[in-house]
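Hi everyone,

Forwarding the result from last night's run.
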Amino acid sequence: MTERAGRRRRVWALVAAVPAFCILLALGFWQLDRLEWKRGLIDRLAERGDAEAIALPEGALDQEALEFRKIRATGSYLNDRELFLGARTHEGASGFELVTPFRLDDGREILINRGWVPPSAKDTRAREDARLEGEAVQIGIARSGGWKGASWLKPENDPAGNLWIWPDLPAMVAAADLANPVTELYLVALPDQHPGAYPLGRVTGAELRNDHLQYALTWFSLAAILVAITGIFVFRGRGGSSRG
């Protein structure tokens, strides 16, 4: 290999390595930001988890003040307007989370995530024994909607197919044709509030994992490996070219 060809290869290696290194660093620092966010989330959940359930306040809702609070909802389910959050798993099995609009006694409508169902129970006829008809009292954990990850990773929902990857509350209440919807929050129903085998309720956030430090270290390690490999290639190549 001529010295000029070797120099050209080293230059292109650096050109490829520098942006890749910057991306890996950016991902690492983003995970550190997520680490602090998750710590705050866990602390807030622990603080509010044992509080008594409250009624949903009237008027504009303060998401920050209400998220993870236990909310007591009195009203009735609109069982003919079910929505499904897709790509959800339970003990390794793939399925959906059943979201049903709930009409409160004051006329407002709020979405309630009732829990996980397998594909075999997606059809309402397969879980007739789990329908709650008439007035009911439901206790749920308030959650804000929206996509929680990086914007460039946000997947597209499929309103026409009634498949929602993330809870886009304005779009979901529009798809359910609700007249007086709450769009600031939705509820995740606590377990054991309905008959039948499905849906399987869960306590939102009870198993919140905080793996962001490990993710950050992984990205930083990959960045260090990239630097090492690039350095070996460039400096060994330089030595080889000079000897040739």
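The radius of gyration is 25 Å.

Cheers,
N.
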